């Protein structure tokens, strides 16, 4: 039991308005906790609070009543006896007349009325008393917003929990609701008010009951809120959106069919409003209400609704933004705004609801029939005036929506309009597809009437959509006997043949688009509905393939034909028509495969590959054949290059590999289940390597090697662990027998590695092109392997990669990084499968002395006499006089370090330390020595330091070629943040201490790599310290054209700082330097994106406080004026925007 004095202190704290809100909340929680824990009873609490509940001081009394109410709110699940509840609800009900303490009374009533059923609730009679008091004492609209909201909540609660008691109030209830809602503007209150109307309707469901006579008065208040106009948000209204209000009002409108005489006329009236929002909402509301009011009530509005829909569609079309393309269009390509879209949705809804009525209105409509009567004048698309195109588009869209509604609607549209179209097109409807004999010579290639062609194709497409939808739901029965089916069967043969004969007669884009679309639709109907004869199907495929093979210079026609072939290919297999499926494979798939294997076609090779990949993607069985054809073409071309020395095939082979990597492998990954295809592809490449290894031809083509490696990595990476094991064995065999570097292939997991026998006499600065090719491909396999895949002779492979690394073989370095990364996976199985642990691998890489430096400075394999032994670390630090070896070693070390960095290994600190030492080589030598030329290799020093600086790019950037999740690398979360926060302070300190201009520039370069690859949130958290480094980095990188991509990346970081509130302080402190830097970059000649982004940064700076940027206005405007003459349009556009922003600063 709490002491009385302590309770009193908390009571006084809460009722004292001078006390901080936090103290008052704490007192409330304390008191509520006492009652909940049975340390204080409600009776004792009320007794202690008696003075505060009855005092004449209005403020104290209001606070006291509110305190008791809030305590009860916290006791909703605590059991209370009926007497206590009765006493409390009576008290709060009486206080509803005390307007100075009204909030507490409302909160108290709500707390008691909302109590959980098992904890004791307010009786029905007491609830009725509350409702009566509400009606008599609460002038809702004269209260403050928060009190009004509580009033609405109280009324809602009464209606939901005590409907019978509230209903007994009769007309008083209706008047209370009307008075409460009338004139309300607060969003929170309105949502409650609209819901109250919904609940009220449920209480009085009888259409002839008391609600019927009151509906008009109630809707008078509701109707004035349509459409919802809600544009200016207050902070407290941020959680209420306009859509929420609109949906609540829509639910109220549709809550009872008794509202129909008032709602539908209002909505139809608003459809003629000049406000687009009102039109959209009207269409949405009619759609929503129609299904709830029922077909009978909506029927009397049918004609008005139809006219309104037709007008909304016709008046809401915008001129097409682009010409016809290979992408699917709606109608004639006019852009349909939200009004037109909602009107078409409504048309479909009301047609389904009152089908016969709306079909009669549409079919007999004067405007629609006028379009058909004038269709003969629409010979070509280009000659139809804009208004005529709009009318044609609108009619097409309307009739297509109607056609797709149901089979009855489809029949009515076809029988009303299709014969007219066939007559205009001069297409006979006398033959069915079953008895049609193909005679191409009987058809002229005359030009189609475009208007009739457009509507005809749209009708056919809509009918097909309907049939395919019913096909999905197994509703096939009877469709073959439908009117539309009969008409299509009668006209399809002639139509297909004529379209096929004229499809490659180029007239205009619109004509091409609908001819090809018509062919595509007609031959992809299900066989039970429209059977296309085999000869006719073959003719269509021949026509489309003829376009692919001959008309490749007609871009739109070619793309449309390809898409049609893909669509047909996906359909024939789905429709289980085995004969047509075989015809498609013979006429399309096999012909397409021959495109890449033969050179006797004039089709540009990129188009061949596009056709191959698209047609293959139509069905898995097609892709299997396409992949085999591509694989054969790749292997054949590789043999031409590496065996016969045919370098002309290199470019074609690169494109083949890119197609395989970008299209085929990605499709296989998405589809799944075709891993065997990729496994076979990899084995074929290695078989080709085996056949080519004895050739004397030396091929140097980096593009070909890169494309081969990427395809190899992607294919291997998608294979299972079991398949990878076989692949590595195959690759290892080719490697051990194919490279000229002496390599012991007899090593196994138990044998020791004898380095002196590995590369005994080989000079390490020489590397044959064949060795590079085979070793790079093997490295690609290692890069893409899974962590538990077995590596044969792992230690020997590591030594080989180390040797290749110093020869400049970057893939070998990337493979070392990948191996280290996957060895770091916490699993004993990894060490077991590879025969090499992470510690052993680290020993080989960092601590083994693998090479000797001879007396003449040449690097050779370990074991050479009269030489000193060195390892990777020594090579990085320049122990060899050959600086190219040092550059290779630094690059290799960076990739190895990246593998360690991704798993958070401690050794990455040593790697970073070595790279930093290389970066500071200039400081160790001294400026004086460089100036005097005392060192013979001083001229090579910048390339070494640049490599060290760029090593930070390797460490921090995301790589597409290795060490990513696609190639199964292990990546520790937040590794970039940790590395950045560790290294950046060191670089900053070295910059401050450095006396060498070369070292400073390289340190800035390294810092730029870190900054541009770090997450922006990390940069923003330390923006003040980093701004100077960032700006200096921009200046340094802008001096060399080779650094343009790095410059752009760093500039994007600056853009992120400028547009984020967290970076404003750093920007303000450096505003002058920023302006100087950005105005120089506006004239950067080597990259348009740099100039454009620099101007965007200046635009962002125009938002800074005026006192800080106004002095810089003249400087900015002078630079921007020059940018107005930039040769690139995007730059000029940004310059205009920036000029306007800075000019407005007064």
What is the arithmetic mean of pLDDT? Answer: 85
Number of beta-strand segments: 5
The unreliable regions are 433-445, 745-764, 926-939
Distance between the termini: 70 Å
Content of β-strand: under 5%
- How would a textbook summarize the main sheet? 3 strands, antiparallel
SS-based structural class?
Answer: mainly alpha
Question: Please, how many helices?
Answer: 57
Q: Helix fraction?
A: 55-70%
Q: Please, what is the oligomeric state?
A: single chain
Q: What integer value in Å does the Rg equal?
A: 40 Å
Strands of the biggest beta sheet: in what spatial order? 4-3-5
Shape: globular
Domain MMS19 N-terminal: 46-314
GO cellular component, one term: nucleus
Domain MMS19 C-terminal: 694-1101
Pfam families: MMS19_C, MMS19_N
């Amino acid at each position: 039991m709490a002491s009385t004095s302590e309770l009193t202190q908390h009571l006084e704290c809460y009722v004292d308005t001078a006390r901080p809100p936090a103290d008052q909340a704490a007192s409330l929680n304390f008191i509520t906790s006492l009652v909940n824990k049975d340390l204080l009873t409600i009776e004792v609490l009320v007794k202690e609070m008696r003075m505060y509940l009855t005092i004449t001081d209005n403020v104290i009394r209001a606070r006291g009543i509110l305190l008791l109410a809030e305590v009860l709110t916290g006791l909703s699940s605590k059991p209370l006896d009926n007497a206590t509840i009765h006493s409390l609800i009576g008290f709060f009900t009486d206080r509803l007349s005390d307007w100075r303490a009204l909030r507490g009374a409302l909160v108290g009533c709500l707390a008691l009325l909302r109590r959980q059923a098992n904890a004791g609730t307010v009786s029905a009679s007491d609830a009725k008393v509350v409702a009566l008091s509400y009606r008599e004492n609460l002038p809702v609209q004269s209260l403050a917003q928060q009190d009004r909201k509580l009033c609405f909540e109280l009324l809602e609660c009464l209606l939901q929990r005590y409907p019978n008691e509230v209903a007994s109030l009769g007309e008083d209830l209706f008047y209370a609701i009307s008075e409460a809602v009338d004139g309300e503007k607060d969003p929170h209150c309105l949502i409650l008010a609209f819901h109250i109307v919904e609940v009220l309707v449920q209480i009085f469901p009888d259409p002839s009951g008391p609600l019927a006579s009151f509906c008009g008065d109630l809707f008078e208040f509701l109707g004035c809120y349509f459409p919802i106009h809600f544009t200016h948000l207050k902070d407290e209204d941020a959680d209420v959106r306009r859509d929420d209000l609109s949906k609540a009002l829509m639910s109220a409108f549709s809550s009872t069919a008794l509202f129909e005489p008032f709602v539908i006329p209002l909505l139809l009236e608003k459809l003629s409003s000049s406000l687009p929002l009102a039109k959209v909402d009207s269409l949405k509301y009619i759609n929503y209400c129609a299904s709830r009011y029922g077909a009978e009530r909506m029927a009397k509005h049918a004609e008005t609704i139809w006219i309104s829909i037709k007008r909304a569609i016709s008046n809401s079309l915008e001129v097409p933004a682009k010409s016809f393309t290979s992408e699917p269009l709606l109608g004639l390509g006019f852009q349909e705004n939200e009004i037109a879209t909602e009107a078409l949705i409504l048309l479909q809804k009301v047609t389904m609801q009152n089908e016969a009525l709306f079909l009669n209105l549409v079919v007999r409509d004067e405007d629609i029939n006028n379009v058909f009567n004038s269709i003969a004048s629409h010979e070509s698309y280009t000659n139809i005036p804009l208004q005529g195109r709009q009318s044609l588009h609108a009619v097409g869209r309307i009739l297509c929506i109607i056609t797709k509604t149901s089979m009855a609607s489809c029949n009515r549209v076809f029988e009303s309009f299709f014969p007219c179209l066939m007559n205009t097109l001069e297409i006979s409807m006398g033959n069915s597809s079953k008895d049609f004999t193909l005679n191409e010579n009987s058809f002229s290639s005359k030009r189609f009437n475009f208007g009739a062609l457009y509507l005809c194709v749209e009708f056919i497409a809509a009918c097909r959509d309907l049939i395919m939808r019913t096909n999905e739901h197994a509703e096939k029965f009877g469709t073959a006997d439908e009117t539309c089916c009969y008409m299509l069967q009668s006209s399809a043969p002639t139509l297909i043949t004529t379209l096929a004969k004229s499809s490659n007669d180029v007239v205009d884009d619109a004509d091409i688009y609908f001819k090809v679309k018509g062919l595509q639709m007609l031959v992809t109907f299900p066989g039970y509905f429209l059977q296309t004869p085999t000869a006719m199907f073959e003719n269509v495929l021949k026509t489309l393939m003829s376009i692919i093979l001959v008309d490749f210079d007609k871009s739109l026609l070619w793309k449309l034909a390809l898409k049609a072939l893909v669509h047909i290919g996906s359909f024939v297999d789905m429709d289980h028509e085995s004969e047509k499926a075989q015809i498609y494979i013979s006429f399309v798939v096999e012909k397409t495969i021959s495109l890449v294997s033969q050179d006797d076609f004039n089709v540009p090779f990129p188009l061949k590959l596009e056709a191959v990949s698209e047609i293959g993607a139509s069905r898995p069985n097609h892709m299997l054949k396409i992949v085999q054809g591509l694989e054969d073409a790749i292997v054949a071309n590789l043999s031409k290059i590496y065996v016969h020395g045919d370098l002309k095939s290199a470019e074609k082979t690169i494109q083949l590999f890119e197609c395989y990597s970008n299209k085929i492998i990605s499709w296989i990954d998405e589809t799944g289940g075709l891993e065997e295809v990729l496994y076979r592809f990899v084995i074929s490449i290695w078989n080709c390597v085996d056949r080519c290894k004895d050739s004397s031809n030396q091929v140097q083509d980096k593009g070909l090697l890169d494309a081969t490696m990427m395809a190899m990595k992607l294919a291997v990476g998608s294979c299972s662990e079991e398949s990878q094991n076989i692949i590595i064995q195959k690759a290892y065999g080719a490697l051990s027998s194919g490279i000229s570097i002496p390599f012991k292939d007899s090593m196994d997991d138990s044998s020791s590695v004898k380095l002196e026998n590995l590369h005994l006499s080989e000079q390490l600065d020489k590397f044959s092109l064949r060795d590079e090719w085979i070793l790079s491909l093997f490295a690609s396999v290692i890069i893409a392997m899974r962590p538990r895949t077995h590596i044969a002779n792992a230690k020997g492979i590591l030594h080989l990669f180390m040797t290749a690394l110093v020869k400049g073989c970057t893939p070998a370095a990337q493979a070392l990084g990948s191996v280290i990364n996957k060895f770091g996976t916490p699993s004993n199985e990894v060490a077991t499968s590879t025969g090499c642990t992470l510690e052993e691998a680290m020993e080989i890489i960092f601590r083994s002395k693998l090479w000797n430096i001879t007396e003449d400075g040449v690097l050779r394999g370990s074991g050479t006499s009269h030489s000193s032994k060195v390892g990777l670390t020594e090579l990085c630090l320049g122990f060899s006089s050959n600086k190219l070896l040092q550059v290779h070693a630094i690059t290799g070390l960076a990739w190895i370090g990246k593998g360690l960095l991704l798993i958070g290994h401690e050794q990455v600190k040593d790697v970073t330390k070595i790279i930093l030492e290389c970066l500071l080589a200039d400081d160790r030598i001294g400026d004086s020595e460089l100036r005097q030329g005392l060192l013979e290799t001083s001229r090579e020093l910048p390339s070494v330091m640049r490599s060290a600086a760029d090593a930070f790019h390797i460490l921090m950037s995301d790589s597409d070629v290795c060490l990513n999740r696609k190639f199964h690398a292990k990546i520790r979360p937040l590794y970039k943040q940790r590395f950045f926060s560790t290294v950046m302070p060191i670089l900053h300190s070295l910059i401050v201490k450095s006396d060498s201009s070369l070292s400073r520039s390289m340190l800035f370069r390294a810092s730029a790599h870190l900054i541009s690859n770090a997450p922006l949130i990390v940069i923003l958290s330390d923006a003040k310290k980093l701004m100077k480094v960032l700006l200096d980095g921009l200046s340094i990188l802008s001096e060399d054209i080779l650094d343009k991509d790095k410059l752009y990346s760093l500039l994007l970081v600056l853009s992120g700082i400028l547009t984020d509130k967290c970076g404003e302080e750093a920007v303000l402190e450096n505003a002058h330097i920023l302006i100087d830097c950005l105005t120089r970059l506006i004239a950067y000649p080597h990259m348009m994106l740099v100039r454009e982004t620099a101007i965007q940064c200046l635009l962002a700076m125009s938002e800074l406080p005026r006192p800080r940027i106004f002095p810089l206005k003249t400087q900015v405007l002078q630079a921007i004026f020059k940018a107005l003459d930039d040769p690139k349009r995007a730059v000029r556009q940004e310059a205009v925007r920036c000029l306007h922003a800075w000019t407005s600063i007064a």
